[in-house]
Each structure stands twice: as structure tokens, then as C-alpha cells.
Amino acid sequence: MRHPLVIANWKMHGSGAFNQALVEAFLSLLGKHRAECVLCPPFVYLGQLKDLLRSSDVVLGAQDCSHIAQGAYTGEVSAQMLSDCGCQWVIVGHSERRQYHQESDALVAAKLSMAQRAGLSPVLCVGETQEQREAGEAQGVVKSQLLGALGDLPDLQGLAIAYEPVWAIGTGLTASPEQAQDMHAFIRGVVSDLDEKNGPALRLLYGGSVKAENAAELFAQADIDGALVGGASLDAQAFAAIVSAA
Ligand code: 13P
Predict the structure, then answer these.
(1) Which of the following is catalytic: 67, 94, 96, 184?
(2) In this structure, is residue 196 part of a structural domain?
(3) What pTM does this model have?
(4) Domain count within the chain
(5) Is 214 in the pocket of ligand 1 (CB under 6 A)?
């Protein structure tokens, strides 16, 4: 039985006052829940969230990490520093990083390896664009992202994978539960071929316009073990409902 996992990706949103109000409201609304829950604010707010989450079972994650351990890399933040600041999770290879920062599969692979060495659990993001889906290339693109990022890792223990079709991110368009399930089953096959022992147990999250209204039917699919949530994670009520649905 895979333990449900719901991760908030705040992206570049928030302020000291906004974060405090959001986290306090979210914790007060969050009733009994089975899912493991992770909040990923911008780096500069990790310390603030660590304090706000201190007496809850909600844990801390980051949105990215460097592919290098340390050195003269202005502006970079290492996986070890994230661990030092209380993070347990880190998102790697988000499509916005791939698109706006030209992150390649090789760079994503190096980040994954840094995250694992620092004892963080990485969430690897994969997903096709609208054009790639229309050209019938969705599975090929996702497989090549998976093999490019995971091919050299000794094992996949502790990793989670988020399938985020680029056309569904922030657009209000959600993959149908069947479309998402088909791709999740495909991903499960690829990771199980890569690592027979850990692949079948990896948690596969869906991301892309997940809302309180569509979460339950997505989570009802056999290979959807949770969600990576953008916009709706900035609304305490919506995010609490998503976590409860998992
Ligand atoms: P939205 O939930 O805003 O579509 O964002 C999804 C996402 O990119 C999470 O990483």
C-alpha cells in the first residue's frame, strides 16, 4: 500500500504576512488526514515555514536545488543547505525550470543525485507539451525524461515522480482521470523496469490544475498516489480539501 502524498508548490508567490496567514489558516482547517503533506515555499521563506509548521505533521520541501555540492556558484542553493534548513523534500526538473532555465535531463540527473546524497527525498517532474501530445509523442517524451534523469541512479528508493502535463499547468485544463491514469501506469512500468525492487512502490503524483473539485476522482485512480499542487495550494481551504481527499 503506497502512502498518499500531497505537495504544495508555491512557485514564486508569498510574503511574510501572506505566508503566516496561509499556513495558520491551512493548519486550522486541516482535519484528520491520511496523506503525507509537504509545503514548498520559495527558499527565503523556509526558515519562516519551519517555525510555523513546528507543531504539525506537515513537512518542509524546496522547489529546486543545485547540481553542485558547494563552491563559487552565485545564487545557487545546495541540497545539503536545504537539509540543514529543515527540508525533507525537494522538487527537481519542474517544467518551468526546464523551459525558463534550459534544464536538461543530464542537469536534472545531477540534481537528483545531490538530493539523494543530502538525504532529501526528491520529486522528479516529467510531462509533455500540448504539441507533443497532439503528435502522439507523450509517452516517448516522458520515457526519455525518466531514463535521462534516473538511468544512472543506483536505486530509486525514497523518490517520488510527478506527472505534470505542461498543457495542464496553470491553465485550468486538467488531464482527465483516465488520461492521467494511463500515463501513471506507463510511468510505473518504466520505473519498475529500472528498479525492480523500489519501482513498484514509488509514489506517482499528478500535477496540473488540481483543485478541490477534481482531486477525489484523480486520487481514485489505481496509479495516482497523490498530487503536486500549484495555484490551489495558495488557498488554505482548497488545499486542505485536496489533502483530505487523498
Ligand atoms: P497548477 O496547480 O497551478 O496548475 O500548477 C501545477 C504545478 O506546476 C505544480 O508543480
Answers:
(1) 94
(2) yes
(3) 0.97
(4) 1
(5) no
Joined grid coordinates for residue 31: 482535519
**Which pairs count as long-range contacts for 100-105, CB under 8 Å and 24+ apart, including other chains?**
104/148, 105/144, 105/145, 105/148, 105/149
**CA of residue 229 to ligand 1 center, whole Å:** 5
**Ligand 1 pocket residue status of 164, Cβ below 6 Å:** yes
pLDDT band at 217 (very low <50, low <70, confident <90, very high): very high
pLDDT one-digit tens code per residue, 145-167: 999 999 888 889 899 999 999 99
H helices present in the chain, as ranges: 16-29, 46-52, 79-84, 95-100, 105-117, 130-134, 138-150, 177-194, 215-219, 236-245
Q: Domain of 159: which CATH number?
A: 3.20.20.70
Q: Is the residue at 26 inside a domain?
A: no
Please list, in sequence order, all residues whose beta carbon lies within 8 angstroms of the beta carbon of residue 120, skipping any fewer than 6 positions away: 65, 79, 82, 83, 87, 88, 89, 90
Single-letter residue type at 170: G
User: What residues contact 201, with CB distance under 8 A and at least 6 apart?
Assistant: 2
Is residue 16 in a domain? no
Which structural domain, as residue segments, surrounds residue 188? 5-10+36-245
b/e code 184-209 from CB counts within 10 Å (16+ = b): bebbbebbbebbeeebebbbbbbbbb
* Residues 6+ away with beta carbon under 8 Å from 222: 181, 185
CA 209 to CA 175: how far, in whole Å?
Answer: 9
How many beta carbons lie within 10 A of that of residue 20, not counting itself?
16
Distance CA 184, CA 31 (A): 28
**Beta 5-9 vs 121-126: how paired, if at all?**
unpaired
